Amino acid sequence: MSTIPVESYLYPEDKAALDRINKVPGIGKLMKFVSKNGIERFYDFMLFSSMLKITEKNAPKVYDIYRKICERFDVKKIPDIYVTRNYYIKTNVFGVETPKILISSTAFEEMSERELEVFLVSDIAGIKAGHGVMSMLQMVVNSYGGALPVPKALLAAPLYYWSKQRYYTYDRARMIYSDDYELVMKLIDYGNIPETAPGMNARTIEERMVQSEEFRSMGGFSQVSRSAKTLDNDAPWNADRAVQLFNWVESGLYSKVKEELL
Amino acid sequence: MPVALKGLEVSEYRHSEDEKAFKAVENVLPAGKLGEWMEKFESKYNDRIEYLGSCVRLTPDNAPRIFKLMDTAKTVLDYDGDIDLFCTRSYKPRIEVAGIDVPMVLISDIIIKKFSDEMILFLFGQGITMLKGGMLKMFKLSDSLVNFTNAIPIAGKALLYPLGQWRRKSQMTIDRGGLLACQDYEAAMKYIGLLSGIPFRYINDIDINDRAEQITLETERKKSLPENVGHVNNTLLSGRRSWANERFVELFNWYNSGEYGRVIAAHT
Questions:
Q1: Quick one: how far is CA A155 from the chain centroid?
Q2: Which among A5, A42, A58, A27 is positioned nearest to A159, based on CA atoms?
Q3: A85 within a domain of the structure (yes/no)
Q4: Nearest CA to CA, how far is B213 from chain A (Å)?
Q5: Averaged over A215-233, what is the pLDDT?
Q6: B residues 126-155 near A, CB within 8 Å?
Q7: Interatomic CA distance for residues A256 and A187, integer angstroms
Q8: Does B3 fall in a domain?
Q9: Which value does ipTM take for this structure?
């Protein structure tokens, strides 16, 4: 099976946001500082101290899946992956020199093997897209932004914006990897509705779109309130993710990308 | 399957002190109007955006069991309004109710996973009672006043007192609505036991009578001065909902006094 190049799934606004951040004065210097002065090592130490690193020995099945995903995305050096106790189903990637992945334990408890595989795609795809560096930067700015020589808001605002865009990249990467539209749609809302509920199908996707449309068409003060809330979040609304994926697939753009990859 | 209580009104099972406090608050201040305005604003410009944007709206297709249970609760309590039902990832064993013009109920995924149908009916019965009983406006007022009154050292507490008092008593009415919806005494009492910290795993092992005795003994015990001060400060002046044990005793007494049976008999 051919490898999946980053250009095929990188959401254009994600790329644009990454480019904009890289142009912010001082970013290069800040990242050098982070890398040279052991800040990344500090986070590594925290992970080693309190989280479980998944290896071939302690979770052979999961590790096997993980290795398979790395191969598809042409990631030669397999990044460390840590599991943490959390009721919310989450995953994140960060790191400048050595990108690492964090995943919540509930993902292992509640997802089927196939769901977990497609869920994990996001972080490997993210590493290839340069998300590890940006995530690291976001952690540093959130923790120590007040002490930096540049105003915190100057860095935080574009980082929050980028952070929202990356999820659209993840949904596309999952789609290309799995070619399973209903599963990728399900993963967007995963956890918000129990796994015992009927999964996504044509009918429930249609209903999801009706809900998303109602959300996106809010006018007047609702729109103002929604915009203010959006600014404050570092993840997009699920309603927006569902619409973006729907549009990408239904417009035929996804099929075109798939054809090019064959 | 619980029986439908045709023509049931919240006033028939409203806790007497809830009724008194509710009227007192409405009479003293233009509280009803203010609370209603605040609830409408908050539900439209905050809750609905959050629910539509981040949660999943439940439908007969994506959640047939839960959707049917809501329909049952509406029929049993004779509520014919529409309710938008949403689900979100949360470990909280409670529902959230919002919206006067467009009522919405938010249910946690943990409830769907762990609760029996009867317990879910109990929760939906609570929600419908809040809507039918016009309680949302008062909850909003009380929530908002807590933040405001905390900034005013003593007078603030005095302002909060009548609302706090109402809030605590209204919970008794809400629990009664839950019991009327599920018509399963054990499920209702076990649910309240869960709120006291009994783990999900052991929920079916609760001995209701033993627990009622334990709580009654504790509440009837003569308390020292510091205990009384703590009680007044943390209950009457805090604006929070009633303690789970207080709710347990209240529902236990209401059911065993025959009041519950009288309400059911009047509508069947």
A1: 20
A2: A27
A3: yes
A4: 35
A5: 89
A6: none
A7: 23
A8: no
A9: 0.84
Count up the domains in chain B and report the number: 1
Q: Are A145 and A152 a contacting pair, CB within 8 Å?
A: yes
Report chain B residues whose CB lies below 8 A from the CB of A229. Answer: 49-50, 53
Interchain pair A192, B53: CB under 8 A: no
Question: Quick check: B239 pLDDT over 60?
Answer: no
Residue numbers of the domain that contains A62: 6-261
Question: Residue B5 falls within a domain, yes or no?
Answer: no
Q: Which residue range(s) make up the domain with B42?
A: 10-266
Q: Is residue B27 part of a domain?
A: yes
CB atoms within 10 A of CB B234: 11
**How many domains does one find in chain A?**
1
Cβ distance of B59 and A240 shorter than 8 Å: no
**Which residue has tokens 């629990």?**
B175
> Residue B191 falls within a domain, yes or no?
yes
Q: What is the DSSP string of A25-86?
A: TTHHHHHHHHHHTTHHHHHHHHHHHHSEEP-TTT-HHHHHHHHHHHHHTT--SPPEEEEE--
Cβ contact B62–A191 (<8 Å): no
* Strand order from edge to edge, sheet including B56-57: B56-57, B84-88, B104-108, B96-98
User: Considering the domain boundaries, does residue A223 fall inside one?
Assistant: yes
Chain B contact for A153 (CB, 8 A cutoff): no
- Using one digit for the tens of pLDDT, what is the confidence trace for B92-136? 999 999 999 899 999 999 999 999 999 999 999 999 999 999 888
Q: Does the beta carbon of B112 lie under 8 angstroms from any beta carbon of chain A? A: yes
Does A1 map to a domain? no
